Amino acid sequence: MSWINRPLAAERRRIARRATCLQAVWNYETLQGVGFAWAIAPGLDRLYPDPNARSERLLAHLERFNSNPYLGTIGIGFALRLEQEVARGSAGADQRLARLIKAVRSSLGALGDELFWAAWRPALGLIGAAAALMTGSLIAALGYWVAYNAFAQTIRWRGVRAGFASGAGIARVLQDPFWSRASELTKSAGAVACGAVAGGALLAARSGGTEGISVFLITTAFLWLAGWRRGSRGRWLSPSVAFLVVVILLSVVVRISAGVLP
Amino acid sequence: MSLDQAVLLAILGGIVFLDQWPLLQSMLSRPLVVGAAVGIVLDRPTDGVLWGAVFEAIYLGVLPIGVARYPDAGLAALAGSAIALSAPVGVPPPAGWAVAVALGTGAVGDHAGVVLRRWNGRLAVHVREQVAAGDLSAPGRAIAISLMRGAGLGVVVSAGALTVGLGGLALVVSTPWSGPLSMTVVVLAAAAALVVNGTRLLVDSRSRFTAWGVGLVLVVAAFGLVG
Q: pTM for the complete prediction?
């Protein structure tokens, strides 16, 4: 039975690679369940030589799971560690695994969504788009892509090991101040960048004369008002529809009085 | 746009659709990157990056959180950038039509995502039955099937958007949908969208509002004085 106690290093690497497909069979019933089961399967192959036992454990992992795609690997690593206990035959280990994974998944989703979707992606997207608008250079797009993945894919790749190492102490990983600090720092840096973009855009608009300044300020005011929330009825206009309205109105102005805009 | 380029763009649509949520999430599907890729395919990388940045600004605030539905920003940027770049070099792009086609494609892409998720639901039921019957390779097969379906949906949506968008160009000639709006004005409008959407997303406290102001003052002081 010594194989049960091995650190499963090779399997963890395979699991990390497979975790890129965590959402491949995302559906409204089990969410990321199939991707989770497929990702953890190399570990189950090692832990359960008996196909019937493996099939039973694989079925258990086909249950509902949902998490942020980059932080999901922490949940898989954690499940693999607890799966070792199940394979050892510890009493009640399978129920404990099911209970803990249910408790952990929503925390992983909330932490990851806050860090990646609400902070890292918009802050980098803002900087990348501003650089692209200023330079028209491919380097802006490439830099955005490389910077995003340098952080996100590293977290994803190292997540299996972190989750596996934590085992039942997963709460310590989730409560690590790193997550909240990273989100706060990224949002603050994004806010500075956003102010800088506003300043840069004002200066660029100034070079287009009064017309340039007018286009920028009126468009900003319109988009801001259009995105205002009206209680429970949501925004007046979504940002994309508001932008379409701006483009059409500006085109009408150009048609009515040619040469008025820069 | 040649047939070869259109085929390449449709294939790119398959990759973009997969990267949006089923596979990897490497942000190849973000408008900034998609616009650059469209520019490379159409041999106008600078214009492609500019239009990618325009769509990035529009879709900056779309957050894929939980089971929320959201437009497919990647496919939207692909179709919109391709339509915008259909105008010859030096001619004002059909900006209104490009943005309208992008919005429509984003909505269709969202529906395609819902269709794929429903197909996935049926697939997940089959996987459970097959694993219960001892077939341990069923999850892997399901993933391969779903990815192929996703790529196919992306190709179909992109090809349809390009067909409608390019075909519709003839109908919108001499209307405000075809411009004429100089790229300078489009870039200024995009910068305004970037500032508005970025502020709404990232400035959520008094300290961040101060940070926003610091960024503004620093740039204006540094470059305004130089200028």
A: 0.94
